[in-house]
Amino acid sequence: MSLSRQDLFDIAAWRQALHRRPELSGAEAGTAAMAAEALRAAGAAEVISGLGGHGVAGLFPGAAPGPTVLFRAELDGLPILEASGVPHASEIAGRAHACGHDGHMAILAGLARALGRRPPARGRAVLLFQPAEEDGSGAAAVIADPRFAALAPDLAFACHNMPGLPLGTASIAAGPANCASAGMRIVLAGRTAHASAPETGTSPMPALARLMPGLTALGRGGPLDAGFSLVTVTHASLGEACFGVAPGQAELWCTLRTLTDDRMAALRSAAEALAREAAEAAGLALAIAYRDVFGHCDNAPEATSAWRRALDAEGVPHGTALFPMRASEDFGRFGRLAPAAMVLLGAGEDGPALHNPEYDYPDALTETGARLFIRLARDLLG
Predict the structure, then answer these.
(1) Which residue, among 78, 54, 76, has the nearest Cα to 142 in the 3D structure?
(2) Which end of the chain has a smaller Cβ tally under 10 Å, C or N?
């Protein structure tokens, strides 16, 4: 069952309304309410809200026993000042749907309409609007919610729009799809002094100067093979913005990245050891914390094959370009519960990249994405 022109018009208007009011990770209350209403309007047998925060799931059961198939989209926007210039640009300063999550929600809304008109013959489809993907906390929070146990999937699918790939094409590959990553925050504490007598204090400046190139040297990138690692310094601060005080505190943020989870522990250990050495050498107190932690994401062979069958059936050209990716994705959490795979859907070759302030998801992509999700649902659930 395909979507009508009126469906696509309505869904585009709904997507643009989402685009105007982006909400950040963990604060997606309004977006979640719109998702829940769309599921009810489409005819979901049950709508569950508040999963792992603001997550929303719509259930479309079949009459006969069968598998549970999860289809996932993300709710959250980004802390970016939009500069797209489109009529439906963000109305909230400093927030934007610059990763296209509004488009992923539109694709899922299209699937909901199709399933509402013709429910699965067997098993059930679970349409999940997941919170807090951008900071890596949302999938884990949804899975930890006691109510998710009753929704646990036998297969899980997601898509991501991808600028750089031609519109109307796709990419999918089995194996590692997204890198593991962890945000490391290092705080160095010494003692301030008068700027005329810095020797009476304990400055973290030498340790900070040592750590920035030292941490970067632990992982220099290169080919995305099994030994890949990358450390990127993303933020540094030293003392206060004044001329009369020698600094007593410094902070350094960096992102650690490896192809797979099993390499991350070693990279963390090396980074922590380097931080301890630098702090001890300078007589500083040290504190280390982590946030925005993502496990690596694998495309399971079974789920990847299902995507390829759907792509072939719908006549969507596809290859394996861009896999594996350096960027991280918390969809991999669902892959620890069941075979899962994410496909990349081409958003056009000449436009802005994801997370650029000019980016706006192309509504022309929704029809392709919805057709593919509908095909998957029919192939697996009848």
Answers:
(1) 54
(2) N
pLDDT reading at 46 higher than 80: yes
How is residue 62 written in tokens? 């079949």
Of 357, 372, 291, the C-alpha closest to 22 is 357
What is the distance between the alpha carbons of residues 101 and 301, in angstroms, rounded to a whole number? 25
Q: What whole-number percentage of the chain has pLDDT above 70?
A: 100
Coil, strand, or helix at residue 320? coil
Whole-Å CA distances, 147 to 77, 264, 306 = 25, 31, 27
User: In this structure, are residues 307 and 375 in contact, taking their beta carbons and an 8 Å threshold?
Assistant: no
112: nearest Cα among 88, 129, 130: 129
pLDDT tens for 217-234 read 999 899 999 999 999 999
Q: What is the pLDDT of residue 290?
A: 98
Going by pLDDT thresholds of 50, 70 and 90, the confidence category of residue 205 is very high
Task: Give dist(CA 300, CA 282) in Å, integer.
Answer: 48
Rg (CA), the chain: 23
Segment 69-91 shows an average pLDDT of: 98
The count of other CB atoms within 10 Å of the CB of residue 195 is 14
Per the DSSP assignment, residues forming a β-bridge with 127 are 58, 71
One DSSP character per residue, 321-338 reads TT-SBSS--GGGGGGGTS
Looking at residue 1, its pLDDT comes to 62
> 285 - beta bridge partners?
189
Give 67's contacts (C-beta < 8 A, 6+ positions apart).
Answer: 122, 123, 153, 154, 155, 380, 381
Nearest to 18 by CA among 37, 35, 36: 35
Indicate whether 87 pLDDT > 70.
yes
Give per-residue pLDDT as tens, 299-333.
Answer: 999 999 999 999 999 999 999 999 999 999 999 99
User: What angle do the packed helices 5-20 and 29-42 form, to 10 degrees?
Assistant: 160
Mean predicted confidence (pLDDT) in 141-154? 98
The structure tokens listed for 350 are 């000449």
Coil, strand or helix: which one is 95? coil
Residues in contact with 263: Cβ distance below 8 Å, sequence separation at least 6, in sequence order: 180, 226, 227, 228, 229
Q: d(Cα 366, Cα 15) in Å, to the nearest integer?
A: 10
211 vs 231: CA distance, rounded Å: 11
